[in-house]
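Need histidine kinase's 3D structure for a figure. Predict it.
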Amino acid sequence: MNGVSHWQATPYTLPLGVGAGVFVALGVYLLRRRTEQRLVPGTVLGALLLFASGLWMGMYALELSRTDFATKVLLNQLGYVGIAPIPLLWFAYVMRHTDIADLPRSIWAALGTVPVVVIGLVLTNDWHNLIWRHLWISMDSGYAILVNDHGIAFLGYIVYAYVLIAIGLAVLVRELVRAEGIYRKQTAGLLVGGTVPAVAGVVYVLGASPVTGLNLPTLAFSFASGTVAWSVFRHRLFTLVPVAWESAVESMDVAAFVLDANDTILAANSAGETCLRVDLDDAYGRPASAVLPDTLVATLGDETDSEVALTCDGDTKDVLVETNALGEDAVAAGRLLLVRDITDHKERERQLERQNERLDEFASVVSHDLRNPLTVARGYLELAHETGEDAHFERIEESHDRMEAIIEDLLTLARRGETLSDLSPVDIATVAREAWDGVAAENVTVDVAVDRTIMADRGRLRQLFENLFRNSAEHGVTDGGSSVTVVVDTLDDGFYVEDDGPGIPEADREQVFERGYTTHDDGTGLGLPIVHSVAEAHGWSVDLTTGETGGARFGFRGVEDVQDTATPEITTD
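Structure prediction for histidine kinase:
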């Protein structure tokens, strides 16, 4: 009829049109990302599922907008091009998403035949009426809605569709229970996207729709489109196949993180949880810069492995950060970040460096310090042969004593290094007196006033006192025969050894603990390094200051009494 409009506005048209547009746009987005960044194979399945859903909703939105019977029937037929493959595409993607063993090709071929046959039957329905027996327009709701009186072939298709839907939903429920993090959220998105239209479909097929003829599953898809869109962009739905990565990453002993091309966190294992700034569940889908420590973020631009110091859960460790590009069967545009704890390895390297330094120092002492008294001894031996004077033999004996002292200190450092062999409760005063009995230098008085019992290696502590007493004797007693007094007393968190000699100039204090450094003609330059080594092995700090009378004061701090702790922290080599 001329002048009669064939269009109508319904409250269902807009949500259907918007949902169709969202699904088609998402499908294009996924295919473009696959072309540009070679994402997972499941992306194609996801895109096809979105296109089919969008086509179905778009055709139905147009069908509702038309009032003429012929156009409605044509749009209804075209809608089946989207309707028919949806159950199979959804089932196939669920199988891909959950990484269930693939079905034989013969089964997939049989399942794929059904949508093709259905579309063929729809287009030829006027010849057999197997899809619908009768079509008419209902005006019960105030709008012209096409009503389908379905035939036997349609009912067969519904059985086929709901078998696939039921299996898929059961698989997703099982996956939802065992999945974690982003994969659980992906699965939840799929579950919602499949359940809502499935329930609406049951209501529609049973004829219980509140609006006569209204296709509820299509309308349900429009409401589910928002959930699907959120899952695509927030949880990487259709762009990450979870199970293989989940099992691989979670089983690693090292901290592991899966990042996409934009350095967004897609996955993390429990070993990496302690390194995150936020809870593990809150980390998924967020930029690495917002959830990872700055030291890890700084390595993301490195093409090679990086070694950094990383603090996780209050514990600082040396770690090796490895970045691995992911292959085409996973997230090819992303990478796997592995953070390996190499603290023990680095400590062994540092120990080896210290040992090498000691070896270099030993070689220097042997080649220089031992050579000097040896040369002196040989010279005086020749003079003794020539003259027979006793004074020459005395000088030879002095040179031998000098070499013996050097060798003894060298052996102390070479054999003991920085190790502790036996920790036990030790009274500092007792060990200090024993050390003085072994030194007993002339013109030196030792006053032991300390009163403290600690956990220590008794032999190494005695070496510490012996070397301090010898140092005071060598540098405090002058050629004029003046005496020196050494005091051993208590600090709040340790003890000190102080003499009333000339002291050590402030400019020399940083060097006195270096092996080989000495200002005394007969010194080996090893005594104070031994003192520092013993203190460091016990976990104590050493500070060298000026005493109350102007002499040298060696303070040892961080020393804990036996009653305060059972075993103080120590350093081993």
